[in-house]
Design brief:
Layout (H helix, E strand, L loop, with lengths): L6 H17 L4 H11 L2 H15 L6 H10 L6 H15 L3 H29 L1 H25 L12 H25 L22 H11 L11 H41 L4 H10 L5 H13 L4 H9 L4 H14 L3 H62 L7 H21 L7 H23 L4
Helix pairs in contact: 1-2, 1-5, 1-6, 1-14, 1-15, 2-3, 3-4, 4-5, 5-6, 6-15, 7-8, 7-15, 8-16, 9-10, 10-11, 10-15, 10-17, 11-12, 12-13, 13-14, 14-15, 15-16, 15-17, 16-17
Amino acid sequence: MMDHKRLVNESPAVIGMITSVLQSGGSIDTAVRTIAESGPKNSMTLFAKAVRMTDTKEYPSIREALTEALSKLPKEAAGYSRAVMMILSASESPDDDTRERMLRDSADIALNSVREMGESYGASLTVPCMTVFGIGIMVPMILMSILPLLNVGGMFGSKTIDQETIVMITLAIVPSFILMVALYMRSRNPFLGEDESLLDLRYAAPLILSTPLAIVYLIIGTDSDWIFLFSLAPACVAAIILMSDAMYRETRRKRCELSLMDTVFDVGNRMLSGNNFEKAGVDSMRSRSLLIDISDRLSREYALCRGDVRTAICSVIGPISSEMSIALQNIQACSEKSNDDAGKLAVTIGKQFQNRTSTQRDLEMKLKSTTDMMMGTAMFFAPMVLGMSVSMLEPLSGISGFVSPQGTEIILGTYLIELCALISLLVSSLGNGEGVAKMIWRFCMMCPISLLVFTVCCSFSL
């Protein structure tokens, strides 16, 4: 199902792909079919609908079919519609200079739409994040430490909140509220990427190790209040060790993808200086340390491909970035007609990539303070406050005559585990979003630190 809220975020990529097809000599029909086959998820659905309406003769041309599909988009996707309509107009222009200017205007419209949407989205995060911050810390602290203090003066008379109610609020109601906020923020996020497969839940398998560790810990007869630190924390560390290689490879792939996008502009300049496409691409990649291995593989593929350059590009660049693979294939196709025109195309696409990357980085920096606050809350502030609350609980209970809930440390330890899992979901729902594997990775990073801080703070004697 097409998500209209996220179409705007896809517009720079779509405009870039259409631009590369048009400037490499392709028609708007070819460009639309390219998006329908290999474009971003939601745009693929929209453009495939236009292709289907044309092929079934519902509309006489793909241009009219796409125009009709764009006219039915809601106002939230107005920036997307304007950018695509501008590029449709550019494809009809007989003058090269006018067409290039309209293509640049289309790219600017797409980027400005994303920037405006990002500013609006960032401003909308303040209230829900501060709500999670307040509810996630204050309610458990009040239940576990402030109630005994209020009972000193007999504020509640002969009535007190029973243990079952405290446990229910701490372990069920508060986490459920945070979960609803996290899911709401995820559903409202226009930048969220495609979800990863649920098969990535296999990375959580090492966490099962916490069960036998807990049994061994209880058999030894050690104080049960520290059971989570000595059972779940080692399991999280084991999961991190097993996931480290996959996380490293994915991080490296993303860095390579960004670095490849930065090389397109350089490829264009080298081609305008007289180099052919193959040499310009390989030399540009080799000039960046992160891409030396990729440039060597691409050079070998060129030597073995027997003239099938597109297949060589697809086999080497495709696994790293399908968008970059399509862009380079279009530049290569254009170079077969004119090396200078291909160089100009590469420069145009490179500028679009650079502008889009700059816009995305600005949005990420604006969200960084929010994500850092949420992670800091789960790892340090919440366990520190709740741990000190437990330390105060015994003397306050002695003064007030309030009987503290049994297993207070176990209750709050369980709550901190839930909080780390929920904050992992919340943080993974911000910005471009993250898949299941990254959520598990972040939980395994935060949970041991949170439990350690909580255990140390609980050990303080007041």
